[in-house]
Amino acid sequence: MNNWNSITIKISREAEETISALLIEAGSAGVEINDSADYLNHEDQFGEVLPEIEQSELVEITAYYPENMPIVELKAEIEHKIANLADYFSLTGLSVTTNNLSETNWAEAWKKYFEPARITHDLTIVPSWTKDYLATGSEKLIRLDPGMAFGTGTHPTTKMSLYALEQVLRGGETLLDVGTGSGVLSVAATYLGAAEIFAYDIDEVAVRVALENIELNPGHEKIHVSANNLLEGIDKKADVIVANILADILVLMTDDAFRLVKEEGYLIMSGIIADKADMVIASAENAGFFLETRMIQGEWNCLIFKKTENREGVIGG
Ligand SMILES: C[S@@+](CC[C@H](N)C(=O)[O-])C[C@H]1O[C@@H](n2cnc3c(N)ncnc32)[C@H](O)[C@@H]1O
User: Bridge partners of 100?
Assistant: First the structure.
């Protein structure tokens, strides 16, 4: 029977996505995230709002590796990579620890975090190996292999991107999915009626993972995946652009997004930590967009901008 090792990293919340991707690139089949913000404002079974838990600025990210992988070297490699990110994230409170798990613990941890998750009225994310989950009514299943993917697709930034896509897509649109990662947003867009989707990621591994996941779903022929840095060199006009990347990177693409979005089209930006939202809003507004919708979950913001001459219904319009 195989045993497993885990590496747990405590780090500032803003580093969560990058560190998760780094742990998966190092060979983990997935990550488990423990974030106190997820428990804030939750209700108990009687509908009472639970008392606010003191909110830590740190998240705990745990990744699992088979015991035959050299855990000491892996830990050192990961610590080195994190140290190189010191200019991007606060490393205050950082800790990196390892643990040995029995097969039973591993199986439990894995199961707990990769169950089917109904995200919106119509969209449910289902692990690819769950064959017995049946869609009911108008429910559409997004099949993902979290073992290959950047997250399970149930992170607040992804969830809000899905809510936003459901809000703006009506059918027949051309969509650009910048930073496609697992491909989850592109697959969702096919279900929501988009006619043609161009998905980009800067990371070659993400491009491969996205292609593999997209193939698991009907409508995959509508999605074209390629490696690209943001929207550099792209000339495909789009009705909607969606990007779930960190704020500091999103601001680099607002001008290109404005160039490519058709009149009355939308730019959806997610992955924005609360205190950087104003910076992203200013960047998109300077490019010519108007803010139409702002969603907040815990520390995360998702913004829907519109390219329009008609300011009615836009925030501050
Ligand atoms: C948080 S993941 C989002 C994945 C997926 N779209 C979702 O919503 O769950 C961010 C993705 O953006 C990609 N990315 C980061 N910087 C990028 C850039 N400059 N150009 C294109 N993709 C980038 C990363 O490789 C990663 O796959």
Answer: 5
Please report, rounded to a whole number, the percentage of residues in the chain having pLDDT higher than 70.
Answer: 85
Q: What is the DSSP string of 291-303?
A: EEEEEEETTEEEE
Cα 156 to chain center, whole Å?
Answer: 7
What's the angle, vertex CA 11, arms to CA 9 and CA 16, rounded to 5? 90
pLDDT tens-digit profile of 23-65? 988 888 778 887 755 544 444 334 444 344 334 678 899 988 8
Count of C-beta atoms within a 10 Å radius of residue 108: 12
Answer yes or no: are the C-beta atoms of 26 and 51 closer than 8 Å: no
Ligand 1: which residue has its CA nearest to atom 7? 158
Measured in degrees and rounded to the nearest 5, phi and psi for residue 196 equal -150, 135
Tokens of 161: 């991107």
Task: Kindly report the length of the chain.
Answer: 317
Domains and CATH numbers, the chain: 4-113 (3.30.70.120), 117-306 (3.40.50.150)
Beta-bridge mates of residue 241? 176, 267
Report residue 272 CA to chain centroid gap. 11
Instruction: Report the complex ipTM.
Output: 0.99
Residue nearest atom 8 in ligand 1 by C-alpha distance: 158
Give me ligand 1 centre to Cα 178, in Å. Answer: 7
Distance 230 CA to ligand 1 centre (A): 9
